[in-house]
Amino acid sequence: MNIECLVRQELNLPSHQVFVCEVVKVWADEGVLAEGGGISPTLSSPVCYYGGHYWSLGQDLGKMGALFKKA
Q: What is the value of pTM for the model shown?
C-alpha cells in the first residue's frame, strides 16, 4: 500500500516537525482489499510508530465517537 500526499502545512515544534497533508492518491495491492474495494486493516497488517518503536495494528476497538464500544 502506498499513500501519496501533498504537504499543506509544516508546524515547527520545539521537539519535532508536524506535517499536515492532503491524501491525493492511494495505491494498494489487490491482496489487501476487502469486499467492496476498501483496504482491509487485517489483510494489510498496518503499523504505527510510537515512542521509538514500531507497533502492529489490526484489532477493531470500535467506531469513532462510540467510547470504545464494539461496533
A: 0.52
